[in-house]
Specification:
By secondary structure, this protein is α/β, with parallel strands linked by helices. The chain contains eleven helices and 14 strands. 41% of the residues lie in helices and 17% in strands. The structure holds nicotinamide-adenine-dinucleotide and uridine-diphosphate-N-acetylglucosamine. The site of nicotinamide-adenine-dinucleotide has 27 residues, from helix 1, helix 5 and strand 5.
Length: 340
């Protein structure tokens, strides 16, 4: 039996392949390489010393998905595939809804046809919008999203919940990621954003390596310990292992309601905390300028992680220093990412 990993060539997917392999799971990877490179798969193969079954394809391609389900014995899916840029989603909402929503609907229909009823879905803390308080618990209100990317995640969560209501033999895990950062400790795998990074850690890493002149710090007048935005940064390898625990959970439970769980560390760090930690890890000075707030940003976002511990027996282990060290190793070894 195999797990189908949609979007498995991407940043989080590629790290998850290693953790799944280390835990004895078999998988196949399906990705259209829209935001990733085959090189990531080659590097995972090198790390695990094993060939990976990789199929290039789009989750909206029904025929190709059906071929895949006919050819391989797939009993579960980890569904990473999707578009993830907030800014792009605002300028191109139709493409985002088409890819994320239609893609997921298509995948779910094919899964149902082939009686494959276990799915782990990549959701995001963005579904909480601007929370009234922190830390954020899973039962906080959701849906106050401010952009099509976030709304697509919220809508997919609802679709999955409705699917379960219609057929409670589906086993569903919705993982709400906080801010994934860092890279594999080998320095061979990491985040390879197209163009100018929108997210903090890749921007800092590119500034440290000399690709960007300075970091713009978006606002210093938030109600936080130093006025800059506070987030829950989680090492991508810890996050990847959370998927193994989610698959274990689905495999070991009988009929269960959709599991909705936060994957974060529970610790909030500010932009300046991250900057200082990265300077320490890299030995580089990182110039920065305080600029206006970024539209749509919130002051504080960090998880209550007690439910993840209780239900999955999972807890993030890696520190902010390790996140910065591994990002730096990846960035300095691969200044142009996978270079493709
Ligand atoms: P990523 O872009 O690196 O990986 C996504 C992968 O999906 C890419 O390899 C891309 O080529 C592939 N893909 C996109 N559309 C596809 C389609 N229609 N058919 C087949 N493959 C397709 O992103 P990531 O950071 O690894 O994120 C993985 C998932 O986690 C995404 O769903 C993302 O929205 C979600 N997520 C990410 C973050 C984050 O900060 N990285 C936070 C919360 C949630
Ligand atoms: C962003 C997205 C969110 C998505 C998440 C993970 C927005 C509004 N939100 O969240 O939907 O789920 O990424 O991909 O885009 N910062 C700077 N300078 C920079 C970049 C960021 O100061 O150049 C600050 C931000 O203001 C924020 C913190 O760093 O306080 C983290 O930003 P970022 O990495 O973009 O993540 P989020 O804003 O949490």
């Amino acid at each position: 039996m195999k797990i189908l990993i949609t979007g498995g060539a991407g940043y989080i997917g590629s790290h998850t392949l290693i953790e799944l392999y280390n835990s004895g799971y078999n998988f196949i990877v399906y990705d259209n390489l829209l935001n990733s490179s085959k090189e990531a798969i080659k590097r995972v193969e090198k790390i695990i010393n094993k060939d990976i079954i990789f199929i290039e394809g789009d989750i909206r391609d029904t025929l190709k998905l059906k071929e895949l389900f006919s050819k391989y014995s797939i009993d579960s899916v980890i569904h990473f595939a999707g578009l993830k840029s907030v800014a792009e989603s605002v300028s191109n909402p139709l493409e985002y809804y088409d890819n994320n929503i239609l893609g997921t609907l298509n995948l779910l229909k094919v899964m149902k046809e082939f009686n494959c009823k276990k799915i782990v879905f990549s959701s995001s803390a963005t579904v909480y919008g601007d929370p009234a308080t922190t830390p954020i618990l899973e039962n906080f209100p959701v849906g106050g999203t401010t952009n099509p990317y976030g709304t697509s995640k919220y809508m997919i969560e609802r679709i999955l919940e409705d699917l379960y209501i219609s057929d409670n033999s589906f086993k569903i895990a919705i993982l709400r990621y906080f801010n994934p950062v860092g890279a594999h400790e080998s320095g061979a795998l990491g985040e390879d954003p197209n163009g100018i990074p929108n997210n903090l850690m890749p921007f800092i890493a590119q500034t440290a390596v000399g690709k960007r002149e300075y970091l713009s710090v978006f606002g210093s007048d938030y109600d936080t310990h130093d006025g800059t935005g506070v987030r829950d940064y989680i090492h991508v390898v810890d996050l990847a292992y959370g998927h193994v625990k989610a698959i274990d959970y689905l495999n070991n439970s009988n009929k269960i309601k959709p599991l909705i769980v936060n994957l974060g560390t529970g610790i909030g760090y500010s932009v300046l905390d991250v900057l200082k930690a990265f300077e320490k890890a890299s030995g580089k000075r990182i110039p920065y300028k305080i600029v206006d707030r970024r539209v749509g940003d919130i002051a504080k976002c960090y998880a209550d992680t007690s439910y993840a511990k209780e239900v999955l027996g999972w807890k993030a282990k890696k520190t902010l220093a390790q996140m910065c060290e591994d990002s730096w190793k990846w960035q300095s070894n691969n200044p142009d990412g996978y270079g493709i």
